[in-house]
Structures are given as structure tokens and as C-alpha cells.
Amino acid sequence: MTDTILVVDDDLGIQKQLKWSFTDYNVVFADDRTSAIAQLRRHEPKVVTLDLGLPPDPANASEGLKTLEEIIALAPRTKVIVVTGNNDKENALKAIELGAYDFYQKPIDSDTIKLLVNRAQNLAKLEDENRILAKTRPGMGRIIGNSDAIQAVVRRAEKIANTDISTLLQGESGTGKEVFARSIHDHSPRKDKPFVAINCASIPENLLESELFGYEKGAFTGANKTTLGKIETAQGGTLFLDEIGDMPLGLQAKMLRFLQERVIERVGGRNEIPVDIRVVCATHRDLQNMVAEETFREDLYYRIGEIPIMIPPLRDRDQDIILLARTFLNQYREEFNAKAKSFSDGAINAMLAHRWPGNIRELQNKLKSAVIMAEGSLVHAEDLGLMEPAQGAEPETLNLREVREMAESRAIRRAYQTADKNMSKTAELLGVTRPTLYSLIDKYHLEDVKTGA
Ligand SMILES: Nc1ncnc2c1ncn2[C@@H]1O[C@H](COP(=O)(O)OP(=O)(O)OP(=O)(O)O)[C@@H](O)[C@H]1O
Q1: Which candidate among 244, 260, 287, 348 keeps its CA 20 to 30 Å from the CA of 337?
Q2: Which GO terms are recorded in the biological process aspect for this UniProt protein (predicted)?
Q3: Is the ipTM of this complex over 0.95?
Q4: Whose CA is closest to 91, among 44, 57, 118?
Q5: Which atom of ligand 1 approaches the CA of 181 most closely?
């Protein structure tokens, strides 16, 4: 079904121009506030372009801003792109403050406004899909993301949630391993029992055993009373062992015994205590490699990872980056009572081009400080600290060839995302042929683009 967009403009010439620009859409028009609202109610478009200079006061933005307010009040999720007079930045920013998605200054250039509208339409669709997913999947609802990469993982996690199969969540730091572990628990028959998490890397080796298995009174100096370990506390529920790769070898043997026999002995105790828990483990390390190097027990490796789940890094989740960024922006705006409401184009491009070595946690941190630092209603790339080469993945260089290569790779990635991963469209946006695009992808080793990630 063709998507509908609403163009609010009283200039017939511009109406015509836009009709020809948006051949992929069903374009409906309105030329004043009343007809705009009527069209909005009738067609429920996801995207509206709104000229701020509307009758009866076309020389002024007041009627346009009023129309914007009514649209947002009636359908707050609509992406409104306001069109302002040349150099009318003040009203453009006012519009953003009122909840417009973006602004565009006249004169209208068909290609640019087409890009803006396509992007707004894609985002609105993503947000809709995510809302539907969140409703239909109560357990996995906390996982934000529509990319194929993350949805494949969600489906895998849903399938195993109902079972007691032990799962090993693998992925870079900050990719959401703990979020997945919790979601698996929330989606399982054990959901009303405890979810207990322990990070094997953050507890000193000599304390980890008693943290996990508990201890009897008098087991060691300072053991004044019998204390339950995390395993027993999770009785009936789920135990999440984060950074399992950091568990010392000695303790690995004890852990394996527990997983095989489902009984534990507290430190200093003699009784075998039966425990019924589900175990979910996670690591950012390459456990297979550790097994080869004999720093991780092979038998334990197979025991904890009956079904492994690989959580993709944020850079492989295409538009999810923007979806997550908007979610965090709204969250922090409320938390810090800040002004920032939306992102500048530069910020969006910078976020799509960044490699996010710290994944979602890094995105959260960058957004938190950007929301606090941003001076107006727009968050810019500089607020996110993404323009500083020292913070980015790319080293500062003055070598022209390297600069050119970096700029080209970035442009290819950006075009690829903007074109919704469609190679013909990507080539078109870049102004090259498809064969040239493919050879550039090879030349710059853009594996994510090559594999369609
Ligand atoms: N898909 C997601 N949607 C929303 N928030 C997410 C998502 N994935 C992760 N987060 C948030 O990102 C942060 C990092 O996630 P989490 O702690 O689960 O990562 P991790 O892989 O366990 O990291 P580490 O290995 O460093 O412990 C958390 O604040 C979490 O709430």
C-alpha cells in the first residue's frame, strides 16, 4: 500500500513541484489550517510537510505554528517537517521546540526534501513497528530494536525462554547481554521467582566462591553467621553469571559439578543442598579460544552454552542506533528537564558513521552528556563528542589519501543506511554505478555493507 503524506502549502506552484517529487507516495494537500486538520483526520499521514507562512497571515509564521501545535496535539507521533522562509531560523527552532520533527528552508530542492521525507517516513514506521512488538512481546518488550540483526536474536531468545536449556550470551561489552538475560527470565515459567545476577569479573577471586555458594558459620575468619550464596538465593528462578570467562579455573570445576548434579555445598558445609535454578551465562571473551588455551574448561563450556546466542554490536543494527538514541534523548530530557528535543542532520549522520566500540552503554553516556550540554532544542554532533577525532574510531590524519578514504567510507555507509540497504539506491545517492559501488565496498573493506548487515 502506498504511504500517504500531507503537504500543507498555499502556493500551487510548490504543491505541484512536491507532487512530482513524491512519486512514491500518495500526496494529499491542504492550503490552510482548517483543511490541514481535516486532511490529517481523514488520511492519518505519518509525515506532514508544513509551510509556516499560511493564510490569513502568509507573511508571518503564526498561523503555521498554530497549525503545527494542533497537528501535534491531535497526532503526536506525526513527523512534521516545517518549511520556512529563507533565513528564518528563529521560527524553525520555535517549530522544533513545539515538536516538529525537522525543518527545511526555502527555496525547495526536490532531492533534499525527498530525502528528509523518506527518512521521516522510515523512522515513523520503525517506531510503529517497535510499539507493536513491545505490545505483543511483554517479556522481550524492553529490548528496543527492529533491525533484522536484533530481531533474529530476539526470536532465538524467545524460543529458548520457555525451556531450561542453558544459554551463553556472547557479545561485546554494552550490547545488552544482561537485558537479554532478564528478558529470557521474564519470558520463562520462572518469571515470578528471583532473577539473581552476579558479575564474576568484579568480585575478587577469593570471595567469588562464597558469594556463589554461600558459607556456614565459622567457615573462615569473619564468617559470623551462615549466609546463603547467590545460587541458593536464586532458588526456583534464574541465575545470571556475567563475565563467566573471568571465573578462576578452580571454581569452574565446582561450578561444573553443580550444573551436572544440581546440588551445592556451602563453603565450610557438609550437606548437599538441592537447587533448582536456570543458569544463563554471558561473556565478552572468546571462550572457544580460552578453551584452546586451556584457561577455560571445555566441559564447562559445553555445559553452559547448550544454545549460544550472539548479540550483535550496535554498529551492525543500522537504524536501531537512531531509534535507541531517540528513546534515550526523551528519557534524559525528562530526567534533566533539558531543552534538547531532536537531532540535527549532522548528529544523525555522525551517529550512523560512528563505530560504537562501547555499544549501547556508550550511546547512553554520550546522549546523557549531550542532552545536558546542548544549548538549544537540537542535539548536534559536537554535543555528542563525535566530531573529535580523538574520541572517534578514526585517528587524526593529514594525509590526503587517508582523509579521502575515510570520507568516502563514511559517505557509503551513510548512503547505504539512507537507502534502506538498497544497493541501487545507494549507488544512485552516491552518484556512482553499482559496479563502482561494489568495488569501493571491497576497497574499503566495508564488511557490514557487503554482508547486508
Ligand atoms: N536493546 C536495548 N534496548 C534498550 N536498552 C538497551 C538495549 N540493550 C541494552 N540496553 C541498555 O544498555 C545498557 C547496557 O546493557 P547491558 O548491561 O545489558 O550490556 P552488557 O552486554 O551486559 O554489558 P557488559 O558486558 O559491559 O556488562 C543498559 O543500560 C541497558 O539497559
Answers
A1: 348
A2: phosphorelay signal transduction system; regulation of DNA-templated transcription
A3: yes
A4: 57
A5: 18
